[in-house]
Write a structure and sequence with these properties.
Helix content is 41%, strand content 19%. The protein has a single domain (2-141), classed as Sufe protein. Chain: A. It has 148 residues and is α+β, with helices and mostly antiparallel strands. The chain has helices spanning 2-15, 64-77, 82-98, 123-137; strands at residues 28-34, 41-49, 52-61, 80-81. This is Nitrogen fixation protein. One of its GO terms (molecular function) is iron-sulfur cluster binding. Residues 6-125 form the NIF system FeS cluster assembly NifU N-terminal domain.
């Protein structure tokens, strides 16, 4: 029953992608990212203001897991500080790689991707957007992400 609900959430984000657009602006950073294992591609746009992600959007194409994960992440990190995003990023990686997450971290809809941890070949699909975010934010001093 719960697995079916999670599948519905994933399909909803895949079929009705949130924040699926290009944004421009003085404070917008972007990166193009290609999943090395499957060929899914995306461009991530991040608008930063005073150590906060104000807006985040993406364009791309790929499997339902990578596109749903991108949609979920953009919803999750909007208007969050880089410190908060670091915690979310680490919790999401724990969820995907090990099937667990700290109780104090709310991953929102991203939690529906928990079952991906059983499919090692799909880990990069779920983590692709977060890896793109790491690439965009690697020079920001209050973001640790993958580079910590």
């Amino acid at each position: 029953m719960l697995d079916n609900l999670y599948r519905q959430v994933i399909l909803d984000h895949y079929n009705n992608k949130r924040n699926f657009e290009k944004i421009k602006g003085e404070n917008v950073k972007k990166t193009h990212y290609k999943n090395p294992t499957c060929g899914d591609v995306m461009t991530l746009f991040v608008e930063l203001e005073q150590n906060q992600v104000r807006r985040v959007t993406f364009l791309g194409e790929g499997c339902s897991i990578s596109m749903a994960s991108a949609s979920m992440m953009t919803e999750l990190i909007k208007n969050k500080s880089l410190k908060e995003i670091t915690s979310l990023r680490k919790a999401f990686e724990q969820l995907i790689r090990h099937g667990k997450t700290p109780d104090e971290v709310d991953l929102g809809d991203s939690f529906s991707l928990k079952g991906v941890h059983q499919l090692k070949a799909r880990h990069n699909c779920a983590l692709m957007t977060w890896q793109a975010l790491d690439k965009v934010l690697k020079d920001e001093k209050n973001y640790e992400g993958f580079y910590s």
